[in-house]
Amino acid sequence: MFHLVGIVGNNYSGSLNRALLQAMQRRYADQFTLTLLETKPLPLFSQDDETTPGQAVRAFRAAIATADGVIIATPEHNHSLPAVLKNALDWCSRIEHPLEDKRVMVVGASLGPMGTVRAQAHLRQILDSPGIGALTLPGNEFLMGLAGKQFDAQGNLTDPATRAFLDTCVANYLDFLRH
Ligand SMILES: Cc1cc2nc3c(=O)[nH]c(=O)nc-3n(C[C@H](O)[C@H](O)[C@H](O)COP(=O)(O)O)c2cc1C
């Protein structure tokens, strides 16, 4: 059983990307645990504070460092990833590098039809930067468009094709974790 963390890429209480991670928590409970990590508690990164990070930053980085893998659920804000997610990644790029050589899966949900394709492209580029150095699952882009219609009242995924594609991407990620 893998023990994974899922980074919620927005600070919005009604986040569909949090809902996506929660749906994954339930759907794959027999294959991995998924502990959600919120980006909202993290202060705005400043080099002035990088040698004295507070408890929120230390706990966030420690959870990543000790996890078997990381799933990042990114919304798309103005054709890129939300600032709170970029901020969290900046905290993971200085002094301590908890994502270095960590195997990461990227998923994303958006209200529009493009399903975070631009945000995910930016996110993958950032994860590949020297300060972060993550190993991002290649070739599997789980893009959930029209996300407002993708969850039922219990928060489970409504569309069989979406569920099947997510199953494939998750199976590929678990293989990636094993090798
Ligand atoms: C500031 C802002 C910018 C947005 N820009 C985009 C965008 O570029 N592309 C897109 O598909 N949706 C965009 N949206 C709509 C998001 O897809 C929608 O808010 C979605 O629910 C975000 O994910 P979340 O629910 O996890 O926060 C934007 C929303 C906000 C608040």
What does this structure look like?
With 179 residues, the protein is α/β, with parallel strands linked by helices. It has one domain: Rossmann fold (3-Layer(aba) Sandwich), CATH 3.40.50.360. Helices cover 35% and strands 17% of the residues. It is built from 5 helices and 6 strands. Strands 1, 2, 3, 4, 5 and 6 form a 6-stranded parallel sheet that branches. The chain is globular and about 50 Å long. The mean pLDDT is 97. Flavin mononucleotide (FMN) binds at residues 10, 12, 15-17, 75-79, 109-112, 114.
At a glance:
This protein has 179 residues and is an alpha/beta fold.
Descriptive terms for the model:
binds flavin mononucleotide, single chain, alpha/beta, 5 helices, 179 residues, Rossmann fold, six-stranded parallel sheet, globular
Give me the CATH fold name. Rossmann fold
> Could you give a short account of the major beta sheet?
6 strands, parallel
CATH class: Alpha Beta
CATH architectural category:
3-Layer(aba) Sandwich
Give the bound compounds.
flavin mononucleotide
Which radius of gyration do the C-alpha atoms yield? 15 Å
Mean pLDDT: 97
